[in-house]
Request: fold
Amino acid sequence: MSEQRVRAGRTATIFAAMAALAIAAYQFLPDEMWWRTAWQVGVGWAGVAALLIGAHRLPRPERLPWWLFAAGVFSNSTGIAVADIAEAWYGLVDMPTPADPFFLGLYPTCAAALAILIRRRDARSDWAALVDAATITTGFGLLAWVYVIAPVNLGDSMDRLAHATQVAYPIGDLLLIPMTTRLLRAGGSRGAPFWWITGSLTAFLLGDSAWVVLDDMGDTGEALLEVPRFTTGLESVFLVGFVLFGVACLHQGAREMTAPADARPAGLGKGLLALLAGASLIAPAVLAAQTATGEVADGWSIAACSAVLFLLVVTRMALLIRHVERQADRVRELARSDELTGLPNRRAWNDELPRALERARRNSEPVAVAILDLDHFKRYNDTYGHPAGDQLLKAASAAWHAALRDVDVIARFGGEEFVVLLPAAGAGDARRAMTRALAATPLGQTFSDGPAVWDGVEDLRRVARTGRRGALRGEGGRS
Reply:
């Protein structure tokens, strides 16, 4: 491990410890607004500083997503000070306040940062991931509509700008939910910075959801907000979100966040499956809750959401079935292919030989088979090593395949032994094919060959069962 990576790891650990102490100390601050305001803003700006310092250590092309995270955290944490100043000095508490643009600035900047990370980590289209994100967003979108957006009454004292501001918060959360889901479904490194970012986004979503629930609880929610320790704990959730971004950026694995994916992640883990199941059950749960109260006020919304979720689930099932079918085809292909040369293996040869002989019998055509055995292969292996021997087998098989006709089939029978099927070929055709193969053999190597032509009499089942030249008539030789 390089000295720079060690310093980065030490810096991230120190920052995380100091941030944890600051958040813990916040629980015991005096019940004075300016103390709490300064502390929250200070923690938020510390997260911004950590993001900027960590981004500065990265190569320039990798800095943009971290700068965007820093902009979002700075905007949101600064909004705390703006809100308190607007309330204390100017009595501005009704929406929209001067602080709302600062609070809302978190959502588009973080969404843009996530989009860049996802694009750089996994540029390939992943329809399954998109369907998963759409399913989760649709389910939680119904909650936002029923309990936040729809209850906004355009006929009350709030003007349209105030309505737009109130609705913008759940829309911002709905923007982050699919982006976070898509990040979790994307390929790429899943080291500590990945989970710190995920934890930070989760903290913001949980904090916003808690505020929505408290607002819907009416007087009970207001009473809970009057409890100092309860409010302090809720505000600490956002403080955790501020600092986790910084910890992720300072971590030594931050540069791996934008590295391209080497392989696809697993299709459906237990956590993702549980989240999808929960999102799909939101619509019936909302319907049951409204039915219990004796009034279904959002029947059309619930019906529309249920229809969309049903179609998304069906689409996801179709994609999963297609994926399984492709995997099964791949497994069958691998089972019939030689891993080293890519040629058909003995199993594929034993399947193809009886079919070729049957076609030859029906069409009254000759069919020839040849066995190729590289000369002195063991000595070559012992002299140059097994990797060189593998390269010889690959090069020879590719050269022989190119020298044969398109209708001919060459398979690796085992070790340095290969078999060739020559449809509609007589003894002369087989000999000429072997001559072309010998001329194409790389590295000045030679092979022993055994071409033969089927006599049209031997039992096909025996030929298929043995796969030996005993069912063929011809003479072998050395080329």
The mean pLDDT is 85.
